[in-house]
Amino acid sequence: MNNITQSALTRFGMTACAVLGMSLSLMSAPAHATAEYALQSGVSWYRIDNPFMFPSNSDNKLKTSDSAWSTDIRGALFLPLPTERTNLQLTASVSQMHYGNTFGNYNEQINSGGPYSLNKTKKQFEGIYNWEFSDLLRGRIRHRTDDRLYNYFGGEIVRNPDPNGAPPRNISNVEPEFPHIREDNIELAYRVTNRFDVPLTWTQQTLSYMIPGRVEMYNMNSNAIQAAIRYTAGTKSTLSAGVRRNRVGFPNRTAQDIADFDSGYTDTEFFTDAAWRYTENTVFIAHIGSIARHFNTLPNRDSRLVSGELGIDWHYSAKTTFYGRIWDRPQANDEADSRLYVITRGIQGRAVWQATPKTRVSLLASLESQKSQNFATSQISTPTSGDDQLLRLGFRYDYDITRRLALRVDAMREQTTSKSGGNIDYRRSTVQVSLNYTFDNVTGPFNFDNQQGYNRARQQIEDLR
Fold first, then answer.
1. What is the annotated signal peptide range for this record (predicted)?
2. Is the pLDDT of residue 424 over 70?
């Protein structure tokens, strides 16, 4: 990690300590609202097919299905400090995975290593501190970490034509990998009038891998600064415009990596965001941005990109809600892998049906194209053409057996098709069945958006899951 990143994290740590001290002092003041908390424990069973995303024509013995189970613990706190306008939100989740024999104890075939295991703890944490100094000045500090299994793609990679047959960077794509994501965000907003405010945002993100080859190629730091002006209409519709500058770096790349892919880039985006509440039950959203991307050492790859999204949230009835999205944007910064510098175009639809007060059904379908920007990916180990199509189908069923005991069934199916080189398919699917018991100290309001009466802490858990 470079000195600039260390300095930024140090400054954030000092800020967080100051906020914590202020929070503790505020906690000693008379409270004007009730602290809300929720504790959840559970167990989950999984059926996982092709987790390493081998191509459909592969005969590797790890291209198979296996079962797994996990023990899950989650907790959340919503703490007014001392009122709801200034509050602290903490949410955490820990799941210990236990795979079957196939993925719980396997030998990696290319490097003759092992035994390897995908059994590892999945951890998530989010802390948010919202504050309002007055009607004119408000802010937010957010810290998030996420540790989970790598989103594999391509399975066993092609060997290099050398005498030892070693794979590129000695990564086989079936070694256990658990990347760590850390994100820190600070926002300060000044209200000019009742309609206009000026939010300023700083975001720092790190992505860290475990396997040396991925550490070298894909470890990533990014620092973004955003300034905007926002208008809020009486109907709670909003319109904002601003500029965002994001500097992305890959600090561990070698000289050859830099020659092939560069050491990083800087995006400067001018954007406009809108959320139009057409009716009480219908909201349209839109984002349009123009991005100028400048590479650090390879200016011939500089380019102009488009970032756009259109969406609708439609509460069709008291029981049914539809969500729709269409987008054209660069890949998110927390997904650095063999498909770097990808431009995605896609469409997604989701429907949520509150069949009864205790039963909810959610359906999801999305179709996305992924194209690498400007240069081919043949130098990267994963066998992809740089022109892929991803189809994703999802199903979720929730049943509240009692107010505290809940059953969830979650299924996901993915198919990626490499559009050139023979239209090779990569398929993966997962089914998860979870039984969870939740204790919370108070109930929340029973309304359209919260038909189960969850308090804010339990809603934080659901958002994190």
1. 1-33
2. yes
